[in-house]
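Notes from the 1:1 (GR / supervisor)

We went over the backlog. Supervisor wanted to see one worked example end to end before approving the batch request, so GR pasted a single chain during the call. The sequence is below; no edits were made to it. Supervisor asked that the structure be written out right there so they could see what the output format looks like.
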Amino acid sequence: MELTPKQQAIELIRNSKRILITSHVNPDGDSFGSLIALTLALKKLDKDVVTVCSDPAPEFLRFLPSLDVVGHELAGAKDFIITVDLSKTDVDKLGYKRLADQKKLHIVITPTQGFFEPQDVTFEQGMPRFDLIVVLDCSDLERIGQIYDNNTALFYETPIVNIDHHISNDHYGKVNWIDLTATSTSEILVALLESLGREKTLLDQDIATALLTGITTDTASFQNASTTPKSFTVAAQLVAAGARQQEIVRKIYKTKPLSTLKLWGKALAKVQEDNENRFIWSTISQAELDEVGAQDSETGGVIDDLLKTAPDIDFALLLSERKGGVHGNLRAVEKGIDVARLAALFGGGGHEAAAGFDIPNTTLEAEEASILERIREACKA
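Structure output shown during the call:
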């Protein structure tokens, strides 16, 4: 009988010693909660784990435990390796001399006998070695960002376990555990850790807190239409395991930097409504972000906390300038509205209740009218 994706993932993880874990750029509560939880759990199983994310955690997630287990560069990827063929003679001495005035480095290799020739020396770029890569909450490899861009060969030479809950997932892994009924990747990981921890309980207070953060943020504190009975059950299980639920609520929903509050004012002042197609939208420019001293990640709270509260609409759209391009955030208000379908118009994705997209190398001024026109056409189709 063929193994299920869950069973295949568990088998690969159990049989691997050195594991790379990563997720998407512009991380959110689900991606970072998943990264931390799986890292801490696999370390309990004595795995050699390296965890990286191309972007740092946004400010509102800085309360998460063991945040430092997630790095932002892949160590070893920048190594330059010089290989010497020793089939003719061995090395007696090895040294180097830095010529500062010429900005050069002489590497001196003395053979035991005879001599080395230029053809005995080869060069290559270093690459970290892993038995397995686990990619969390990421619909395609490109969304991993610079970690993928700078180490593309690594992702094609190493088996990948792809764990996600988005319908837009490209199924790029050797194993693709894509659960479309799950509210979050963190919810899926609870089942994974239960299976991996049959001989040793993996859930502790920190791991449970990280996973509950992922579930809480991806359901907007269990308010999204995608919230299911299972998500409540899993959340209760995490609280029973010691998850600090009140800390999560306080840090994410009750503590806002002044810059975020100012950003809300900017966005709310420009809210517009399309009555015919039943949606509202607003914009945030790079100049406005700079003016209030806000980070890109602070725009997410605007759509979750404010725009979705408008009456008599099906979904909300927030367009913001980000890293030399335009980022779109979509949130469904009424159940049955699939905003992932709208995000796909621009090469983005997500799930039915929440989705996003990026248009690189452009500005709000250049793209806003075109984006709205395409969304209106899709609403009427």
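Supervisor's comment: The domain at 258-380 is CATH 3.10.310.30 (Diaminopimelate Epimerase; Chain A, domain 1).
Batch request approved.
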